[in-house]
Every structure is written in C-alpha cells, then in structure tokens.
Write a structure and sequence with these properties.
Length: about 110
C-alpha cells in the first residue's frame, strides 16, 4: 500500500491541488458563483441609490421653498393638497384609486 502511494505521489498531490483550485474557482469567496451574487447585489444597491438621490433632490427643493424666501404658490399647493381647500366658486373633485382592484382587460 505504501509502495503504491510512493509511486503515485505526484499524481496524488496534483489531484488534491486540482480539486482545491477548482473548488475555490467556483465556490470560494471570490469564486464564480459568489461573484454573480455580488454583482446582483451591486445592481440593486445602485438602483436604490439613484431613487434615494432623486428623493433627496426633491426634498431639498421643497425645503428650499419653505425656508427664508417663502414661495406663496407652493404654500397654496400644499394647502390645497393636504386640507382639500379651494377658492369660492371652485369645484373640488377627489378621485380615489382602489389599489386592490385590477384593471379590466378587454
């Protein structure tokens, strides 16, 4: 038994090294599978970042309209939206959208 191991010593070492490198190439920390998982996480984080940046810009704009220089038009828009407030002789229509219903397909 020991004689067979001594004769195939290089073959045995080569086979273990090959298995080790193949395992790490596909399933290791920097392997092919984990690389694909990390790429998908990166894509979702980039899309989340872009939506958050847009939201921050909108909030900064709204904040700047309510700071030192009061924009009366914007305040009127806020009052109309939040308190459903209108002028005399003006008709206000509230359209409610039911999210639970699915639109009909013809």
């Amino acid at each position: 038994m020991i004689d067979k191991i001594k004769k195939n010593y290089l073959l045995l070492i080569f086979s273990f090294l090959l298995i080790y490198f193949l395992y790490n190439a596909f399933g290791g920390e920097r392997g092919l599978i984990s690389n694909n998982i990390k790429k998908s996480k990166l894509d979702t984080l980039k899309s989340d970042k872009s939506t958050l940046v847009k939201e921050i810009k909108e909030l900064k704009l709204k904040n700047s309209l309510l700071k030192d220089n009061l924009d009366l038009d914007y305040i009127e828009i806020l009052i109309r939206d939040k308190f459903i407030f209108g002028k005399r002789g003006e008709n206000i229509y509230i359209i409610k959208y039911n999210e639970n219903k699915t639109p009909r397909k013809n």
